[in-house]
Amino acid sequence: DVQLQASGGGLAQAGGSLRLSCAASGYRYNDYSIGWFRQAPGKEREGVSCISSVDGETYYAPSVEGRFTISSDNAENNAKVTVYLQMNSLKPEDTAVYYCAGKFGSFMTTAMGVDPEDMDFWGKGTLVTVSS
Length: 132
Hints:
mainly beta; seven-stranded mixed beta sheet; four-stranded antiparallel beta sheet; 13 strands
């Protein structure tokens, strides 16, 4: 089974930085996509960023492009994968619970971005709070 564990959330001031980590286990081959999603109070869950090991493709939501960077680190022949989300120039509107999610194969995007319904595995969220 694929398991995902998100960490790194916390409190930051506007303009500051945080780095989230998603530790994924259970992948056996270089055939996965892992993404970050967030949900603010009263809002729907939205795709923030995603990375695919299949073709190296990355996705950023327009609201975070240029400020957030996604990267991955594979170890033990992909049995353990860590995906990072470096968040710079944070804004109060970035406040949300952030989730990492994954699937086998490439991810799909629509006009609305990466669809949470496209992901098969979810970790527990980590809270990011940005104060003004």
